[in-house]
Amino acid sequence: MSRRTDRSRHTDRSRRTDQLHLNAFLKPPGEYLAAWRHPDTAADAGVNIREVLSFARTAEQAAFDAVFLADLVGVPFASEDVLSRVSVVNDSFEPTTLLAALAARTSRIGLIATASTSYNEPYQVARTFASIDHISGGRAGWNVVTSLNDGEAQNFGLDAHLDHATRYDRAEKFYDTVTGLWDSSDIAPPPQGHPVIVQAGASEAGKNLASRIADVIFSGIRDLAKAQEFYAEIKERTAAHGRDPDHLKVLPALSVITAPTEAEARDKLARLTELLPPQVALADLSYWLGGFDLSPYPLDGPLPELPVSNQSHTAQQQIYEDARRDNLTIRDLVRRVADDDRTITGTPQQIADHIEEWFHGRAADGFNVVFPYLPGTLDDFAELVIPELRRRGLFRTHYTGSTLREHLGLPGPSVAPGHVPAPYKEETS
Amino acid sequence: MTTDPARRLGLGALVHGSGGQLDFAFHADLARTLERGRFDALFVADADADAVTAQEHEHSSTEHFSTEYSRTEPSRTERFEPLTLLAALSLVTERIGLAATAATTYNHPFHIARKFASLDHISGGRAGWNIVISEHELLHRQSDEFVQVVKALWDSFDDDAVVRDKESGRYYDPAGLHTPHHRGEHFTVRGPLNISRPPQGHPVIFQAGSSETGREFAVRHGEVVFVEEQELGAAQDFYADIKARAAGQGRDPAHVLVWPRLTPYGSPERIADHIETWFHARAADGFHLAFLELPGSAEEFVDHVVPLLQRRGLLRTEYEGTTLRENLGLPRPAVRARHLQETGR
Known about the structure:
Chain A is of the alpha/beta class and about 425 residues long. Chain A is built from 15 helices and 9 strands.
């Protein structure tokens, strides 16, 4: 790689000397909508604690920084037929309850759960994550989201979904209240001082919030150049807030299917994607476009101009860009969803090459690794990709710290060793 | 004394009442001790709920409830969040019931329904909800609506609706889904709940009913009713009253259990005698225990009182079932489908 003189060290192309951070994004039985139908998954994994615990332990044995749990506080709108064919949105544990259970039976891996600022109360969130931090000996993290769909709003008596700006205003105040409670003398200080703060929004408001408060920022960007742009921008914004930019880790999502050969990996993908009914793929596309019904439009026609989504601005934008750039019909877009085009399919070396390019190219400080189906794709990643990353000196061989802040290389409070209770030592496995 | 062989003694233990202990290992050991002692359930109190109750006592004479609530009360947050602690405890125990106090005042019904359903799934059917309400909410029928919404959410899916048929691709049978579409005086909650029916149908409901309206509420919704009476005669009166009210509401009195509070002190024989007397005198179906000192008093009780109760044929030597309901001898509620008008979905 050629050296260049740059204005900012964040576009420096010299090789990094630090190591990757990897989260295991668990959405049992898998991110792919038809994962529950796969012969090698437990269809009930969304509510099967033994299954989820085994995933967490696999991730812990591989020394992932953390497991990460998403959330939806309600079922998105779609037809009865479509909804009855998917698992995760209908039948999943509440994530903080699950996280607390995982805390009792893991000892090192970080534990990050999503909790929305739109439908919760700050006091409840503060107590819950402080409790998880205590139970786990300092491994808790809170993913601050402002929620996505009308289905959620209607469970809380909100007829009109809060608009984008209002949601972020509320999120800012909510965060300040929560951290105020963690800092107050009335609450027993969590071992980490503050549980790790994660944030995911890529809109203007999202980037503002993340650079002010977050320890970790997720993103859904899949293009290297765009990711490098985002990385540099976020680091600069963080510095502008008077923070050390190294203390905000940028972790893009990375969905992986791997096998010893390319052919085997493609075969795994095919065996998964053949399980997705077309109407579910169409509904998924609809959802990411903001929940707009696409059925009036011809499948072989272009994507129509739709109102700006009140859900994920960025996902909607990305789909429009792809469509315009590549002249895609609705059918093409549905096929991409069905073929799981977000997933990188390849050999361990190819996956590691991709990771290395992004890491040293300063597009990422690590990744939020997404697993299309579980446990298969997690086992494959742990058995095949992680050793390759270690061979290249990119990832830890074992934990050196005991808190999530330590795994992520973040500053924490100076807590005397005696004050951090050791995680509960289980007697039986 | 008439004995009813079908009656079985229930035991519950309040943990975290002594406050200030944010040590999970301490709680895990305590839970395992109680499980060794064959307790039906342990209860984790909630600081919010205690504050509601405290304010109730303050204002009960005027029946005026103040909604002013200070968030800076000292030592109020020196406690685990109850459901969080119980979720963790569910993975270090196997049979003991896990009940959390949650006040309707500071929670939303959707969150309550979802979190307790999750705890029930995680624990294999051992969750319980100790409902704390305010007099104010009771008078305005808000508490009834709250519980109605929660139950409707727990009944979103028929027990056999979630078929998970890999072959056909059908995760659940749409005919078995009952979206609540609740629009009431106090709450608008569409639903459905985004988790399948809890293993127990509904987590077991505990309730403390003191005032007149409180007793009616307890009998409407409670499956185990707590009472504070410390004198045998008064306790028997309360017991008889609860059972009669239950029958009056069309419920089987045997399925509304009465548990007085007990702080065990004195010799093991003395404690066992007290329990036996009250149980046979129909002043109690069981007791909720508040130990003077933890873990010491709990360990003594398990080591010395429990064997006496077992020897006297009062207390189980092994758990009867895998769920809290089975151990309490309570029936499992069927889905009461509320077929409201469903426009689309």
